[in-house]
Write a structure and sequence with these properties.
Length: 453
């Protein structure tokens, strides 16, 4: 893709306050359009954005395609998988069951799932706060082996419990999708309904979230965007298959920007949970985390929200309490741009400085001679290694047991990961043998990993 002609959108600097501009709504619309388009034009954003202040819609727009196969554009009614935003909905379901008197968050897992593995050492509270010590589901030693199997939620829970704990329950905060998979199993066991049916009956139905549901392979879901991973400099590809049962509870819900807005308003207004449950949900326990929800301060506001990344999709929302501003981003191209969108869209609304970080260095077009030498293991920390491999003629990297991200060669000699929206460089010895990987985040921060294999 030629980048000439879009440079004007790549560096956007603004100042001033929304309140001081008599045409604030129109100004926000123009700035968000230009900012989001800078990423859409480089092939790095496909999705929808909704921004509200109180009862006023400041921005509502979509970019990219819901289906490249059929040439269908994303629209405001398009549905997307929302990844880990699902966690706070799972947490709310648990709190509803507590209000029903069917469980307590202090209960040991063994009280509802029987004595198996560490279930008599872990409480529901531990699962909700990522302090259970359970190994993350995508770090299961046999994950790749069982991924293609037809598994029930009960069988997945057994797989999780069959592994040693990575830390003592209640001692260490460590983000774990596994904990929310087990919570989904508890919801089904205690309620006597499927996870999706319980959510529909107690949350989605009452809130009239008609574009929201629990995704599982099989049924055709109207208006659901196809999910894509980046390919090459500006192309797309279908993501690697991951059995949907592994996302149950932690990231299996799909929704639209309009329905996510309904969910945020319900949390803001206390429409779903009683006050005691609402307090539990929003109490920070560790790591700026409540029950499945992030809580922190930003732009002089108390903020709640969550982000999500899952097999071809990105999602993010933030609600600024004092200003009653909600920013929602849903997309069907799994690049790292959501990390910038959440921050910069807020800057637009609050009159702060911001800039687009859309890539501008052109692609090289082919790999340099001898690029295969870069393959190997690079150790950044005792628990973090990046593996570089040549797969199907392309250089790809993964962290620990995570998914591969293509490393696209650029004309300046560096490589670019669209999945993480970061630059990668290498240091070599006098004989040209790679010794160090230099990982450069888009904000300029650098991290070095020594080649050990």
């Amino acid at each position: 893709m030629k980048l000439a002609g879009i440079c004007a959108t790549l560096l956007i600097l603004v100042a001033g306050t929304l309140g001081s501009d008599p045409h604030g709504e129109e100004a926000v619309k123009e700035k968000v359009d230009a900012y989001a388009m800078s990423y859409a034009k480089t092939g790095d954003f496909s999705g929808c954005i909704l921004i509200r202040k109180a009862e006023e819609t400041l921005y509502k727009g979509c970019f990219g395609k819901a289906s490249y196969r059929f040439g269908l554009q994303n629209t405001i009614s398009t549905k997307f998988k929302i990844g880990s935003i699902s966690k706070q909905i799972t947490a709310s379901a648990i709190l509803l069951l507590e209000e029903d008197g069917k469980l307590e968050t202090t209960d040991l897992l063994s009280e509802h799932l029987g004595k198996t593995g560490p279930s008599d050492r872990i409480t529901i509270h531990h699962l909700l706060t990522h302090t259970s010590g359970l190994v993350d589901i995508f770090a299961l030693p046999n994950f790749r082996k069982i991924n293609r199997k037809s598994l029930s939620l009960e069988e997945v829970t057994a797989e999780i419990f069959g592994n040693d704990l990575v830390s003592e329950p209640g001692k260490t905060y460590a983000y774990s999708n596994s904990g929310y998979t087990v919570l989904a199993r508890i919801i089904e066991k205690v309620s006597g309904k499927s996870y999706g049916d319980f959510l529909e009956e107690r949350i989605f139905g009452p809130l009239k979230m008609s574009s929201t549901g629990d995704y599982f392979d099989g049924p055709v879901i109207e208006n659901l965007a196809e999910g894509y991973d980046p390919a090459g400099y500006d192309g797309v590809t279908r993501p690697e298959y991951v059995n949907d049962v592994f996302f149950r509870g932690s990231g299996s819900i799909y929704s639209s920007v309009g329905d996510v807005e309904k969910w945020v308003n319900a949390l803001r207004d206390g429409k779903i949970l009683k006050s005691a449950s609402q307090k539990k949900l929003f109490t920070e326990h560790s790591g700026g985390y409540g029950y499945g929800i992030s809580i922190y301060r930003s732009n002089e506001n108390d903020v709640f929200g969550h982000d999500g990344r899952i097999s071809g999709y990105i999602a993010d929302y933030l609600h600024y309490r004092q200003e009653d501003v909600t920013i929602i981003i849903l997309g069907n191209l799994q690049t790292g741009v959501a990390d910038f969108l959440r921050r910069d869209l807020a800057a637009i609304v609050f009159g702060k400085e911001y800039k687009s970080r859309a890539k501008s260095t052109p692609a090289r077009g082919n790999y340099p001679e001898g690029f295969e030498k870069l393959a190997g293991k690079y150790e950044f920390a005792p628990t973090l290694s990046v593996y570089v491999d040549v797969l199907d003629g392309k250089l790809k990297a993964r962290a620990n047991e995570g998914s591969y991200s293509e490393m696209v060669p650029l004309t300046d000699g560096k490589y670019f990961s669209r999945m993480l929206y970061s630059y990668i460089d290498f240091r070599t010895d006098d004989e040209g043998v790679p010794t160090t990987m230099i990982w450069i985040n888009n904000d300029g921060n650098k991290f070095e990993g020594k080649k050990t294999e």
